[in-house]
User: What shape does this take?
Amino acid sequence: ILLLTLSVVASARAQLCEPDAQNAFKVRLSIKTALGDDAYAWDANEEYLFKAMVAFAMRRYSSKSTTQISDVLLCNVTDRVSFWFVVTDASKNVTTVPGSEVEAAIRMNRNRINSAFLLSDKTLQFLKITSTLSPPVEPSTPVWLIVFGVVLCLIVAGIIFLIVAGIQQHKKKNKESTERENLEEKGEVTLTVENGIPCETLDLKAGHINGVFAADDERFTSL
Amino acid sequence: QAMEKSRPLWDNPLQFVFACISYAVGLGNVWRFPYLCQMYGGGGFLIPYFIMLIAEGMPLLYLELAVGQRMRQGSIGAWKIISPYLCGVGVASVVVSFFLSMYYNVINAWAFWYLFHSFQDPLPWATCPLNSNRTGYEEECEKTSSTQYFWYRQTLNISPSLEVSGSVQWEQALCLTLAWLVVYLCILRGTESTGKVVYVTASLPYCVLIIYLIRGLTLHGAVNGLVYMFTPKLEQLSNPKTWISAATQIFFSLGLGFGSLIAFASYNEPSNNCERHAIIVSLINSATSIFASIVTFSIYGFKATFNYESCINKVILLLMNAFDLEEGSLTADNLNEMKDYLMATHPQEYVQLLPQLKNCSLEAELDTAVQGTGLAFIVYSEAIKNMEVPQLYSVLYFVMLLMLGIGSMLGNTAAILTPLTDSRVIATRFPKEVISGVVCFINCVIGLIFTMESGSYWFDIFNDYAATLSLLLIVLVETIAVCYIYGIRRFEKDLHNMIGRKPNWYWKIMWAFASPLLIISLFLFYLTDYILTGTLQYQAWDATQGQLVTKDYPGYALAVIGLLVAASIMCIPLGALLTFIRKRLKRESISTV
Assistant: This one.
């Protein structure tokens, strides 16, 4: 009779863990995607570890929880590696812990569970439990503003430098031309002038060089 | 005694050639030519392209350079010398250049924006941002891709349609101001500063293109793109649109009719060999287009292969999860057999899954032809985010875009400033730094329109309509003026004086007959195309669907388009009319005296 009751209890418990059962969750692992050549095979030991982690999560979530490893039931393990699990309540006979509690417990300890299996949120998926995605690291000042500021300062510095240099050049030219005018009035410098243009400028490339008449290299006679 | 102010000159002919190359080689070579090549027959497109280059590109370029070098004035002064009735042509050129500089610098602002955002790891357009309660990604980003989301939402913050103007985006306004400051720095001192800058803006893009060529050709899947795009589809040669697109591309790629080439050439020494330079510049421009399209196609191939393989991996994952198959049992190679096997063994579940199973096709990915800002900012950034060390390639690429854009801007602003500095009225009162500053400031303020939420739509209006018809008409009038009003014999003599030899029969035939005929046919084609299509439409971004939808332009937008086209074209007859009236009045005042 003892054997009978034990087997009845065992089968009743087994019925708790079924695909789409109440309070049951499907888990999917992608070990080969995550680890490549270092992938481990999924066997009974790994299943034991999983049960232990779930029990650990339940205990950590609620201090009065007394979940044992044997309370976590796994079933329908496939080659994918995916399976369903359910957490039974030892105190009340043959019932499962409400799914919301399990969900909260897993969510709280997701990091620990992931690292136990060397996986991440994407490769160890609890299908009904959405994970909160970690926000990207945002620096206090956006990076682009810093680069913008640097470039802006360089450009403005360049503009100011060129403008100031231009003004100084302009002043120097004005001073030179007034000096030259003063010297001309005093008659001390004989300036050769042709059509109102001082001859020095004609020698520079800024003058008009008429290629057709370039044959003779006449010197302009001084006045 | 006032010294006669001599005209500033380029330090050496190389600066002039670099300036022309820097101006002609612009964003169109990178984002328009590859698209045309792909749409109109791949490798076969090169045939009409080269024919048009010889028939239209080189002669018209030589013409403009010769006119500028001979007259030694900006566009307004040069055409006034050719015939006083033609001053309107010069004014029309300046008006078109003004419109162009208003909207073109916005591209540089966008390039700056992307450049500044390239200094992050990971790149901001590589992943979607999280939604407010951090359970998933932003909805709009989920529907489309992260690169498109970054462009439409985080860069442009685009509104659903043209009518919804929205507010000015301060980030874009800042970048636009910076872009104008950079342009001002380069043109501040006239040819003195421009001449030095063009060394960089002309040569740097080639360095980057070479780096990208090496990187592009070594990317996984690049060969797919190259083979698919370059295999000639010669049947496209019978399509008239192919020839029209080739002619249009050559025409606009060289930047004829804006007055920039006349402005650049006016700073030449009169004995400069502009014939040789015209041939060199046009050949380099076309060679750059082809070079850029090789790079673009290898990038396309990489992106298409990457997307295709992601698609296949998604299908594999879906099947594995649905049927709980072992990892690694489904691969790209055995996918088709496994699909048949699964259909046979689990028919009901397979049928349920069928709508989610996408048919992945490499050809479909390669066929997505993109041009314009979409290519430059979306497709390329998508390819870059998948490369190794994406920050480096991103910085290089956007610096190249900046160089290309600024090089073209230098030409545009030269086209506006040279006539202003040539005119005695303005130049004697204000130094050229002030004139340049005022022009840049006005353009920057007007350019703020393009930084609004609907700015991208206005950008498209300006891009498509501000220059197209007007330029064709301007260049047509230019060619006819030089050949028939000024006289081709007089022009021959001028060229002989300048270069030392007369142009041969090829140039004369092209100038007198071939090029004008080509331009007239292009003009007529575009006119009939606009008239036949009725209402003009544009692509608007629909945030709820995550894709572009076609909408009609509202009434006032059509009015603006009409105004843009009319403002420049009307200058030509108005100029002639004004000169006629002025001469009449002078004759009357002389006769009464």
Chain A has a mean pLDDT of 78. The radius of gyration of chain A is 45 Å. Residues 143-186 of chain A form the longest helix (44 residues). Chain A touches chain B through 46 residues (CB under 8 Å).
